[in-house]
Structure formats: structure tokens, C-alpha cells
Amino acid sequence: MVISKFDVRDPIFHDEDAARAHMETQLWPHGPSCPRCGVLGDRITKMQGKSLRPGVYNCKDCRKPFSVTVGTVMERSHIPLTKWLLSTYFMMTAKKSMSAKNLQRLIGTSYEAAWFLFHRLREIPLHSDSGPLGGVNKVVEADETYIGGKESNKHKSKRQSGRQGGKGKAAVFSLIERDGYVRSFHVAKVDSQILKSIIRKHADSASFFMTDDSRLYPKIGEGFAGHGTVNHSAEEYVKLGGFLHTNTIEGFFALVKRGVYGQFHSVSEAHLARYLAEFDFRHNARHMTDLDRANALLRGAKGKRLMYRQPDQAATA
In the chain, at which end, N or C, are there fewer CB atoms within 10 A of the end residue's CB? Predict the structure, then answer.
């Protein structure tokens, strides 16, 4: 990852007006725009008055007030924007991520608020894929791994020794383009049907497909320009002068597991997809500076407001 220092003394981390101005610069590069109808320019006016909170605009078409957080993961949050910005920068500058407990200590909030902040930020890159990985003269590596603790360390009532593959661990499948992007998926189980559907959607068939010697991949590999394998069970890791290997994806998995075991210690399957989205985003933006990476995440917050079903709606939904 490209590293650049950011100054925690910067006003955007301590002054709400400066933080709001920074957010407006990132989310509205061409000036304020209505999150409901998209209108901008002279159809938008900044509202003034002692009774109004700062940063409120009005759309002359919708006749609705809005601020820079409307339509984002920050909408209706009571957490100051300065803490949102600090959380974003801390997350994007930590190669192996950061725990909510550590964020709590750094920004002086409750653990629940820190957990809330990080999970909202992880929601930004989730489901934001754009087109297949790879292409002509490109290599796409595929592999699976398992996230979770040893069954022997779990309480007897929680052991799942009968589960396939990872013995109770959560299955993760990833595709990575060499010198390119990565996409990771939390899958219910690792079988040919599930992997085939993911690979067909997210990997260009003109690519050279690279895997280990698992029996799941030979049939799937027939649909690609070429398919190479290495036999890890025979301690074979590199072949053909260094071209045939899965070291790229193995290295990515190593970072994910260091984050899980070293920072989070454990993650629930309900939230695993968000953690994977965070690691994917950081890898895909690895050539950016820390500051640019954090700002890129902020820009992705636009149009990502989270809607939760209210308890009284559960019975009628």
C-alpha cells in the first residue's frame, strides 16, 4: 500500500464546519446536488437562519431541504462528522484493519458507536462490483479459504464438526486479477455449482484461469482461454518459470486472516461479507495514498443510505 501521513491536527478532524466542507468537496465536486432528483446549480439555494442547523440546502424542484449526509450511510446519524472522518481515515490507513475497541479509545466514543461507525463504512464498498475481472492476456487466480477458530476451542454446544470443508468455519471464495482487483464472497459451502456461478459472472472467460489442484476447478477451467494448476498437496507452489502460481491470492488471504485473528479475534458470519468488502476495497485502492484511499471511500457513501425495517413492520412485511 502507498503510505502518506495525514495530520490529525487538521481542522476537518476537530471542527464540524471544516468536516462538513470537506464532505461537500468530496461528495459534491460540481457543487451541491439534490439527493432526491439530482438537480444542481441555481436550482439549489443554501438556507440561512438562526433556527436552522448549518449546512442545509433547499431544492427548488423538490422543495425539500437536505444536507451532504442525506442519501449516505451517515444520514440521520447523531455522531459528529469529525468522528466519521477520523474513522474513515483510521480504517483506510490500517493495512490489517482496526478493531472497534481500538477506534473507541482513539476517538473517545462508546464501543457501540465505534462498531456502528465501522460497519456503516464497510457497507459502502459492498455490492459495488463493476464488470468482470481479467481479460485477454490477463491472469485470474481463484481459491477458497475458511475463517474461524478451531473447533476444539469452542464450547461443545457450538461445535459443528459435521460441516463440510472448514469444520464449522465460514467459507470464503475469492477471485483476484494479478496486478489488479480482488473480489471476495462469503459462500454457504464450497461446491462446483456455487463457485461456477460466481466465476462465470465475475471473471472474463478470455483470461488465463489459475487455481490449485482442487477437483472443483478442472471443469470450470475449460471455459477459459487457459487453465493452470499447482499441486499444493505435493508442496508444489510455482511452475513454468514463475508464471503458474496462486501466491497473489494466498497473500491476500494472509492479510484477511491477520486482520481477523489479530484485530477482530472473531467475526460473525452475519457480518463477514462486510469485513471482506473492507479488505477488498483496501487492496483495490492499494496504489492510492492513504488520504486518497480514504476520500475514495467517502465518495462511495453517496446513494448508500441504509434502511432498516421497524419492529412494528415485521409482522406485516
Answer: C
